[in-house]
Amino acid sequence: MSCFKDVYFWRQSLILIGDSVHSAGTGLMLSFSSVLNPALLSNSTDIRATPEEVSWISASLGFAGLVGLLVLPPFFQHFGRKTIHIALNCLLSIGFLCFFFSNSITGLFIGKFIQGIDMGGVTITIFIIAEYSHPKRRGYFMTIKKASVSVGSLLCHSLYFSWTWRQIALIAVVPYTISTVMILFWPESPAYLAMKGKYKECEKSHIWLFGNSQKSIKDLDELLTAQMERRNKRPKTPMEMVKRILGKFARKDFMKPTLIVALLTLMVDASGRYYMILYIIQIVVEITGDTSTAVYCSIAADIFTMIALIFQGFVIKRISRRKILLYFGVTSTVLTYILSLIIYLQSNHKIGADLLWLTPSLIVFNSFMGFVGVIPTAFTVIGEIYPLEHKGTGSFAAGVLFTGLYAITVKFIPTIIDELGVEGMFAIFATCLLVCVIGLYFTLIETKDRTLQDIEDEIKGVKRMNECLISAT
Fold it and tell me: Each residue's pLDDT tens digit in the chain (473 positions)?
């Protein structure tokens, strides 16, 4: 049956569209510094800031995420996927409204801090899409989600030509409003309902999303079996609960996914996911000395990112996750080292210095290759790799890694460029990529076209017999 005639495809797409609209808003949020920072450092707005204040405003997005890490993962596990998604939309909207009404540096810090709380739950929406999508659709659904971030980024960079940062902040509230309305029509996640022991509701939600085919019922049986076993082993006293929570951090089925997530998060950062959004204009100006070239390069990077994600939709359907991450990881490593070498030769020995478009073109091409392979695939695996019982703790761990690396990247890239030059920055990122590729070679399992329960069983070393539990519930 064509997917366009498949009612379950459209039901899962309802979830995807609601989340993707949110992701477009996230693209606006991540790119907003590239619009706000130049205005604060110039005479084009009523608020003035020093370079140091501007760097701290941008970096506060990551540091405030540590606050979100204390609140959002427990919220995610206890109140459900719909409620947490609406809460994320509200936080980001309030942050943009703070920007719109702000008339001081303090107001901008408050807006960034509120949005930074949301950064503590950055992996939550990845987990949500993984739970709501069919295993065969999960890969390209994640790709569409990442493409939506690029749409928001392109919109932000394009509006920079004719709109003020306040106007952009106001329009950025619209995607979150649309997303919230769509979320109201979602069912609750079957995985969350099973975890909470709401088996009848889980069955109803699972059938609504995935149908009642023999394969779908088998997947539902496995989900219910695993969660019934887990609930039967629940601690009975507060002391047992504390021991169990602390013991999670030493368990193999938590530590191995966390190591994989750490390597993937570092790989995403080193591939240019965030420095390309925030600092591409500064990087290209540093290389070429031409601001207009830098602005056009940023727009070209956004356009090529969306083209890359279209290609990635085909790649992730046909090639295993492990092969994509290893092969494209090696490619990105080599390209980044080449970039570092070319910039060094141009700036220090004037070799190829007259080829003004060579380096910007290579930067855009390197970003293109990252988005074809490494970046969206890494996010897909992050959404798949944690067992259901560790989703809350895993969201906390992944959030610590993400916000920590994001804050370090945003805060220290200008310093690295000043001290080591752009060539030194690319050399550092290339070395990080090399370390990640080697680490993933030894740790990463294959997740393509597998149910989340099947992946969880491999992580735990469980071989499960096929049981029929629907009648028992």
Answer: 456 678 999 999 999 999 999 999 998 998 888 788 888 887 778 888 887 788 788 778 777 877 887 888 888 888 999 999 999 999 999 999 999 999 889 999 999 999 988 877 777 888 899 999 999 898 889 889 988 988 898 888 788 878 889 999 999 999 999 999 999 999 999 999 999 999 999 999 999 999 999 999 999 999 999 888 887 777 666 776 667 666 777 788 899 999 999 999 999 999 987 777 777 777 887 777 777 777 778 788 878 888 888 888 889 888 999 999 999 999 999 999 999 999 999 888 777 667 777 888 888 899 899 989 999 899 899 989 998 888 878 888 888 888 788 778 777 888 888 899 889 999 999 999 999 999 999 999 999 989 988 999 999 888 765 544 444 44
CB 385 within 8 A of CB 257: yes
Indicate the SS3 state at residue 320.
coil
Which sign, positive or negative, has the C-alpha torsion 31, 33, 36, 38?
Answer: negative
Alpha carbon of 396 to those of 65, 73, 145, 209, 391: distances in Å?
Answer: 10, 6, 21, 27, 8
The rounded distance, in Å, linking the Cα atoms of 30 and 35 is 10
Separation between Cα atoms, residue 130 and residue 118, nearest integer Å: 19
Write the CB contacts of 464 (distance below 8 Å, at least 6 apart in sequence).
Answer: 222, 225, 226, 457
User: Do 378 and 143 meet the contact criterion of CB atoms below 8 Å apart?
Assistant: no
Angle at 47 between CA 44 and CA 52, to 5 degrees: 100
pTM recorded for the entire structure: 0.77
DSSP-assigned letter for residue 237? S
What does the buried/exposed string (b/e) look like for 134-151 if buried means 16 or more CB atoms within 10 Å of the residue's CB?
Answer: bbebbbbbbbbbbbbbbb
* Six-digit token string for 273: 């996911």
Using the structure block, give the residue that is written with the tokens 């030194």.
424
Helices (H), 41-134: 51-79, 81-101, 105-119, 124-132
Look up residue 217 and give its two tokens: 């019922």
Q: Is 288 exposed, middle or buried (0-12, 13-18, 19+ CB in 10 A)?
A: middle
In whole angstroms, what is the distance from residue 313 CA to residue 405 CA?
27
Q: What is the dihedral of CA 286, 287, 291, 294, to 10 degrees?
A: -110
Spatial distance between the Cα atoms of 268 and 377, rounded to a whole number of angstroms: 10
Reading the block at residue 332, the tokens are: 């990105």
Closest CA to 146 of 320, 373, 322, 332: 373
